Amino acid sequence: MTERGTQEEGNNVPLTDNSLIVDISDALSEKDKVKFTVHTRTTLKAFQKSECLVVRQHEEFIWLHDRYEENPIYAGYIIPPPPPRPNFDASREKLQRLGEGEGTMTKEEFNKMKQELEAEYLATFKKTVAMHEVFLTRLASHSVFRDDNHLHVFLEFDQDLCARPKGRLQQLGGIVKSLGSTTDQYYLGATVRDVNDFFEQQMNSISEYHGHLKEATTRTDKTTEKHKEVADSYIKISGGLLQLANVDSGPLNKFLSKVSDYFERARKIESRVATDQDLKLADTLRYYMRDSQAAKALLVRRLRCLANYEGANRALEKARHKNKDIHAAEAAQTAACEQFESISAQAKEELLDFKTRRLHAFRKSLIELAELEIKHARTQQELIQSKMPQNSNDSKSSGNAGIYVATAVVTALAAGVGYLIGKNSETPHTSNSHIHRRQVRTNQNVLPSVNTRSNQNYVDSASECDICLEDFNPIKTLPCNHKFHDNCISTWLTRENKERVCPKCRTPWEESKMPQNSNDSKSSGNAGIYVATAVATALAAAGVGYLIGRNSETPQTSNNAHNHRRRARKNKKKTPVN
Predict the structure, then answer these.
(1) Tens place of pLDDT for every residue, the chain, 578 residues?
(2) Domains in the chain, ordered, with CATH?
(3) Which Pfam families match (predicted)?
């Protein structure tokens, strides 16, 4: 077996290996600090105890990560990214705003919002603990990182490690270091030509992969936030419907109570959807975004070693050309070559392992997320089915309540539409709306026609239309047996007179007295009565809205029809009769 094969087998720890197990058994939040209880069980001889229990803070986790990053021995490995700093400021700020706005909401809404924020705080706390535990697990499961002395001190030493939060100068130094690493990446990528196509392809693909992960993380966070906003809106809708149900003791009471209970349960489902999406998808994307950044740092370190190796080759050529310090230049060139080859072999193995690890992690995370989404969808389906009417009485009451609600909505919409039409129409008496044309055609079909030439009895009793005062042929007959011109009575009934009465005797015109088809005269049951009531109410509301809108624009046009009839009568009297 070759030396390289032995090294590759040594870097992989079997999944069934229990020689070093690290977990966080407990955590305690104290204002801005979180104390983690790290529990270690081991059978390795390098540890003094087989079981250790220590308390660590976030700054000590950062201290351990920096020790690995500063050690040149680990230059060829992907160092696990440090866990993010615990951030509970957002949850505390929301709780503070909720306390300030307590007077603007009911007690039930306040309690529900408080429960939501407490659940969000608990989810953030659990997520923080999980991130710190993953960092330690990665170190303990690596065949090289697990033997580091700093890790042993971190797991065994039961005293404080004197790791303090970074000050402003240290934070500024970290920013400068990050900028220097980014500059090295672009500078070395432009000046150093990599002879190995594998690493060049890895640099391009990981850089692109990191950008996609960053964008996906941002969008997933926005989606999760929208799910939380939907859950919060369900609280307000449920509370409002419950108040309305308590006020109204009529048939809508049961209907509104059911709808309120549905939104309350749907809120819990929506909250769980947001939490699962945050834990299973957003956290996975965010972790591997940082892990891909660590892989890029590994490739940058390799490029730096390649640049040092090329510099050592140029220094050796100059030394040979000058015939001076040749042995020192050869030693430096040999050390640079060995370092470059060593980091290249380790980096290739780490990059392949990184690809396999992230594929397994995303596969597991997405499968679990899909199973949870299906579970929540089924729960929501069962919730909707449970709110549907189960017997005839529930069906009848729910149907009546639905018809009442639909009637109210249609009435409001019809009144608004009528108002807008009346307000926007400049000449309301010459409207070309399809509704008016339909009414004209309906009235023309309903009213019976009479020919004056074939009906001498009517000609003897009256010889002119009472609307236009002219001879009529043909005519239309109302239920009161008064005859009018076709166009005159149609215009009168559909445009001028909203009360729909006879122009002569003022008798109300009822469509039920007009000739109808036998099929139309049949009863259609309670549903037909409800629909007819809704339509009549909507038409009345539309008419009222139309009049209000018309009178708000042209209040002087309400008596145009009366003035027109008066002028027609005067002209008729002045005209000699043949």
Answers:
(1) 344 344 444 455 665 678 899 999 888 877 777 889 999 999 988 888 889 999 999 889 999 999 999 999 999 999 999 998 887 777 777 777 777 777 777 787 788 788 878 887 888 888 889 999 999 999 999 989 999 999 999 999 888 887 666 656 655 666 666 666 666 665 666 667 777 889 989 999 999 999 999 999 999 999 999 998 998 899 889 888 888 888 877 778 888 888 888 998 998 899 899 989 999 999 999 999 999 999 999 998 998 899 889 889 999 998 988 888 889 999 999 999 999 999 999 999 999 999 999 999 999 999 999 999 999 999 999 998 888 766 545 545 545 555 554 554 445 444 555 555 555 554 444 444 454 455 545 544 544 444 434 444 433 444 556 556 555 555 667 777 777 776 677 666 665 445 567 777 767 655 444 444 434 434 344 444 444 445 545 555 555 455 555 555 444 444 555 555 666 665 655 555 44
(2) 1-165 (3.30.1520.10), 188-388 (1.20.1270.60), 395-514+525-574 (3.30.40.10)
(3) PX, Vps5, zf-RING_2
Pseudo-torsion of CA 526, 527, 531, 534, nearest 10°? 60
What element of type H or E holds 52?
A: strand 51-57
Given a contact cutoff of 8 angstroms between Cβ atoms, the answer to whether 40 and 155 are in contact is yes
Q: Specify the amino acid at residue 377.
A: A
Nearest to 505 by CA among 486, 487, 488, 483: 483
> How far, CA to CA in Å, does 369 sit from each of 28, 119, 186, 212, 289?
29, 19, 37, 20, 19
